[in-house]
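Hi U.,

Before I forget, here's the chain from the pilot set. I'm dumping it here mostly so it's searchable later in email.
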Amino acid sequence: MKALGMIETRGMVGALEAVDVACKTADVEVLNRHFIKSGIVTVEIVGDVGAVKVAVEAAAEAVKKLGVYMGSHVIPRPTEEVYNMLEKKEVPTEEVVEEEIIVELPEENRDIVEEVGAKPVVNRRDKTKK
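Structure:
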């Protein structure tokens, strides 16, 4: 039977410590991690109910020693909807297209440019497709 365990810490160091201790303590796998505002990191682990309980307890104790423990919880046999809510969603990204803009100088300015020996400048502007 599967279980979902969550450990929440302040900062990445605590999260890494929690994952390390949890995986070394019992036969569990890391499902995901979430970065929340203010440096809070939540780590999700899965495995058999007993293994997840032991792993979360050990990880919580280790993180408490670091002083960055926020909370932990184990959900035995979560419904499929819980996993659907937690799985990584594809985040839509914007495609950036560069477009050259060529500006023609007026005739009276061309003489000045040639006299100074200036090189033509090509401006690039990002156009974002949504």
